[in-house]
Design a protein that fits this description.
The structure is a single chain. A hairpin with a 4-residue loop joins strand 3 and strand 4. Helix 1 runs antiparallel to helix 2. The chain is of the alpha+beta class. The strands form 2 sheets. Strands 1-4-3 form a 3-stranded antiparallel β-sheet, with helices on one face. It is elongated.
Length: 74
């Protein structure tokens, strides 16, 4: 699938209830690093491109959240 649109919302759950904005910024940085076209909206971020590449980016976003110390990610 060459041209797909996928919207995602990352909700990081932290150990001590820290502010989630720095974690969300890290998730958006993963998208920026990928080079995939995207738009950030109030409740989600929409990516456009090859579906396999987008799913790979989503996986990396979740991995980054765990590396940053989140107990889980919704």
């Amino acid at each position: 699938m060459i041209n797909s649109l996928v919207s995602i919302q990352i909700i990081p759950k932290t150990k001590n209830g820290e502010d989630s904005i720095p974690f969300i910024e890290q998730a958006i940085a993963v998208i920026q690093e990928s080079g995939i076209r995207y738009e950030v909206h109030q409740l989600e971020t929409t990516m456009e491109g090859n579906l396999k590449e987008i799913f790979s980016v989503i996986e990396k976003m979740n991995e980054r959240m765990i590396e940053a110390g989140c107990v889980n990610v919704i």
